[in-house]
Amino acid sequence: MKLLMSKIEIEQFLKKEFPQVSQSFKILALDAGSISMLMNITNEHLRPGGTVSGPTMFLLADVSFYLATLSLIGPKSLTVTTNCSINFLRKPSEDSLISETRVLKIGKTLSVGDVLIYSKGNKKPVAHASLTYAIPKD
Fold first, then answer.
1. What pLDDT shows up at residue 50?
2. Whose C-alpha in 57, 73, 102, 105 is 20 to 30 A from the C-alpha of 116?
3. Domains in the chain, CATH or no CATH each
4. H-run or E-run covering 34
């Protein structure tokens, strides 16, 4: 696997194409086939019981895998989620979340991988997601 987009190019793409959520995310590390991201958690991401909501964790997994895939195929904004399965493993803290994303296989039409999500400062994952993305034809 070879990177086709740099960290700066991915950040610019996210700001241009998804300005409504781009301010919530920061790329911590990028390598061929993997990305690590930080998601700032605010009150709007919390649910009763003092925990981060499931849809918020799904958003982090989805954005992380989307950007990891784009880093390998280039800025194809019509790349879309075709499948996602997420397991919530333990209660996250109200702090920021960190994702560790791997692209396990990428072909001409599909990208398959997974995302581990952690509460900042905790070594045990709070969620694990498996994702498949459809890659548009050129």
1. 82
2. 73
3. 7-134 (3.10.129.10)
4. strand 34-39
